[in-house]
Amino acid sequence: MTDMTQGTEVDPQAQLRKTTKRGGGDPATRGRTTIADGVVEKIAGLAARDVLGVHAMGSGLSRTFGAVRDRVPGGSKSATRGVKVEVGEVQTALDLEIVVDYGVSISDVAKAVRENVIAAVERMTGLEVVEVNVAVSDVKLPDEEDEEPESRLQ
Asked: Is the Cα torsion angle 4, 8, 11, 16 positive or negative in sign?
């Protein structure tokens, strides 16, 4: 049976289907998203390396071990070297250890690293970055060789 209202037919079943929502609300609120620490570490590591004046990430010892690991077949360059994070439900805090190139302003590089890391992490994860601590562990001199061990293979 249909009602006649001002010359248009209204199907009560069609009205019911339009007003009934399935699933109880906005799809974006149905469930939970968790982001692993390693994901934030990779984003932060790559963002920090993009800054002009950052020569490397991590302390001398971690870079040496990383260089050895990179030479192992199947090994890959670690994007997380020199990055430590704490990830909560809506916030994150990061600690970065960097090596800067000689001649650059360390405070300017640290500021640029902080800004780039915050922008990348917040944009990609939606987490609020509450702090980014930057520790400069070394300065790369122009005549200094990288701390990669000599390969025994030729």
From this structure: negative
